[in-house]
Amino acid sequence: MFAGLFVVVAGLEKNVLTAGVIGAVGRLHLERIPVLSIVTAVLSNLVSNVPAVLILRPFAASLRDQQQAWLTIAMASTLAGNFTLIGSVANLIVAQSAKRRGVVISFWDYFKVGAPLTVLTIAVGIFASLNPAA
Fold first, then answer.
1. What total number of domains does the chain contain?
2. CA-closest candidate to residue 30, choices 63, 1, 58
3. Biggest alpha carbon distance in the chain?
4. pLDDT of residue 29
5. Which residues of the chain have a pLDDT value below 70?
6. Would you state the pLDDT for residue 58?
7. DSSP readout, 66-120?
């Protein structure tokens, strides 16, 4: 599955992430930490966090403060993996291991804990990024 994600990402990069798409996404103001955090979190839950980072590479490369962009992407993609059971391959591995031991972790049971935890931790990450002295 994990290898398949990279194949899909490579296909996206070659066929979907055209200069026009990159320009349109650039108009979302990805230089703003909250916007980049939300875009990263949503994308991380659509394609998983590692492929999301690869997809965001051309967008981060076009931003003025690349260090801040990559720190934001690292924070948001890592924390976003906690949002749903399918948000990270690691979550799926844990759920499979638990199931073999008779413990069933459903999507919705995970979501009840993962969603609020993710929203809270990303909000704290955004706050800390915007207020480094805090």
1. 1
2. 63
3. 50
4. 87
5. 1-2, 5-6, 16-18, 22, 26, 134
6. 82
7. HHHHHHHHHHHHHHHTTSSTTS-HHHHHHHHHHHHTT----HHHHHHHHHHHHHH
d(CA 105, CA 108): 8
Residues 103, 18: Cα–Cα separation, whole Å: 44
**pLDDT confidence of residue 134:** 59
- Retrieve residue 93's tokens: 């591995």
Q: Which helix (H) or strand (E) holds 15?
A: helix 2-15
Question: What is the Cα 65 distance to its own chain's centre?
Answer: 19
Give the type of residue at 86: I
Q: In whole angstroms, give the CA distance from residue 118 to residue 122.
A: 6
Burial 52-89 (b: 16+ CB within 10 A, else e): bbebbeebbeebeeeeebbebbebbbbbbbbbbbebbb
Question: Is residue 133 within 8 Å of 104, Cβ to Cβ?
Answer: no
Domain interval for residue 34 = 2-130
Distance CA 18, CA 12 (A): 9
Count the residues in the chain. 134
